Amino acid sequence: MYGGSPCSVQPSAASSKGVQVFTYKELQLATDDFTQANLVGKGGFGNVYRGMLRDGTLSAVKMLRREGKQGERAFRSEVDLLSRLHSPYLVDLLGYCADNQHRLLVFEYMPNGTLHDHLHLNDGRSHLLNWGVRLRIALDCARALEFLHEHTTPSVIHRDFKSTNILLDERFRAKVSDFGLAKIGSDKLNGMISTRVLGTTGYLAPEYASTGKLTTKSDVYSYGVVLLELLTRRVPVDTNRPPGEHVLVSWALPRLTNRAAVEEMVDPNLHGQFSRKDLIQVAAIAAMCVQTEADYRPLMTDVVQSLIPIVNNLSSGSSTSSFRFSKRVSPRS
Fold first, then answer.
1. What is the three-class DSSP state of 29?
2. Name one GO molecular function term (predicted).
3. Three-class DSSP category at 228
4. C-alpha distance from residue 106 to each of 103, 209, 216, 256 (Å)
5. Where in the chain are the domains?
C-alpha cells in the first residue's frame, strides 16, 4: 500500500527500524475493543486510546479518521518519518496497522497528556506546571525542533507545532508528536518550499499563512507562540477577551520588551515564583521567534543555546545566562 508516495515506506523497511506492523484484531485486543474507558484523547485526526500490547507495553493507539487522500497522506508521512527519526524529544512510534480500511498508529504512552490540557483546562492542572517545569518543557521542545531542522538531512518542517502536539511523560518532560502534516524541507540553507496552507490558526507564521511559502522559520514562529502560552497561560486566539487581546502574538509582542508589562503578562498561577532576570530573557526569546519577518527569527540552535544556561541555573537559584541574539530585534517590532 505504500508504493508511489514521495513519503512512502515499505512495511519491511519500517520493521527493520523496530517499528512493528499490527493487525487490527491485535489492537482491538490491546484496547479492549476501543472501549470508552480507554479513550485518552480526541482530535480532528481521530481518537487516541490507551492500550496494553501483548508484551505488556503500555501504548497510545491513534485511530485515524478516514479522510480520503489527505488522511492517507498524513498516515504515510507519519509512518515514514517516525520510522527513521529517533530522538528523545520526539514521541516514539512503536508500530502501525494498515488492515484493509483501518489506519492506526501505535505510540509510546505519555501519562501526563498534552501541554495544552495542563495549561488551558480549568481543572487545577496548571498548578503542576511551575516555572522550572515550564522552562524545561520549553527547552525539550526547542531541542525537538532543533533535531528536525538542523540534525536531519534534509530538514523536516513539523508544520503543526502547537501545545496539543506536545506530550508530557511521568516527569513532565516534553516530547513532540503528530507528524501527519510534516514536510521535508529544501536541501538549501533557509530553503523555501511552496505548499498548501495547513495547520492551526494562531500558530501559523504570517508569511506561510498568506503565501504558502514554508521554511523551518515557520516552525520557529509556532514555537514562539507556544512559549507565549507557557508564559501567559493564554490560548493563541481567544475572541472572548477584550478588543486588542484576541490574538496572543499581537497583544504580547509590544509588551515583551517592556520589563513592567512582561511581569503583568505572566500567568497568575505562577504567583511570582520566578526569576525576573530569567523572565526577561525568555520573553526576549519569544519576541524573536514571533517576529513578522521570517529572517529576523532565530535558528532553533540559537534558542536551545540560550535556554540551556537558564534551565541549568534553575537548581542553583542564580541567573547569569546571556541572550545570544537579543541585538537582532527587528526594527519593525
1. helix
2. protein serine/threonine kinase activity
3. helix
4. 10, 31, 27, 40
5. 11-108, 115-320
| Per annotation, catalytic residue among 80, 92, 140, 160 | 160
Cβ neighbors of 142 (< 8 A, separation 6 or more) are 223, 300, 303, 304, 307
What is the model's pTM? 0.86
How does 41-67 read in b/e, with b if 16+ C-beta sit within 10 Å? beeebbbbbbbebeeeeebbbbbbeee
| Catalytic residue flag (residue 160) | yes
pLDDT one-digit tens code per residue, 29-65: 999 999 999 999 887 678 999 999 999 999 999 998 8
Cα dihedral angle (208, 167, 91, 106), rounded to 10 degrees? -110
- Grid cell, residue 236, equals 493563541
Which region among 43-47, 81-85, 195-199, 238-242 has the lowest average model confidence (pLDDT)? Answer: 195-199
Q: With beta carbons less than 8 A apart as the criterion, state whether 79 and 19 touch.
A: yes
Classified as helix, coil or strand, 13 is helix
**Class for domain 11-108, per CATH?**
alpha beta
Q: What topology does CATH give the domain 115-320?
A: Transferase(Phosphotransferase); domain 1 (1.10.510)
Q: How does pLDDT run across 166-213, given as a tens digit for each residue? A: 999 999 999 999 998 888 876 554 566 666 677 788 999 999 999 888
* Residues forming beta bridges with residue 193, ordered by sequence position: 214
Which residue positions form the known binding site? 62
Instruction: Name the residue among 147, 162, 189, 193 with its Cα closest to residue 44.
Output: 162
| pLDDT for position 193 | 66
User: How deeply is 138 buried, as exposed, middle or buried, from its count of CB atoms within 10 A (0-12, 13-18, 19+)?
Assistant: buried
The DSSP line for 60-103 is EEEEE---HHHHHHHHHHHHHHHHH---TTBPPEEEEE--TT--
Query: For residue 22, with 0-12 CB atoms within 10 Å meaning exposed, 13-18 middle and 19 or more buried, which class applies?
Result: buried
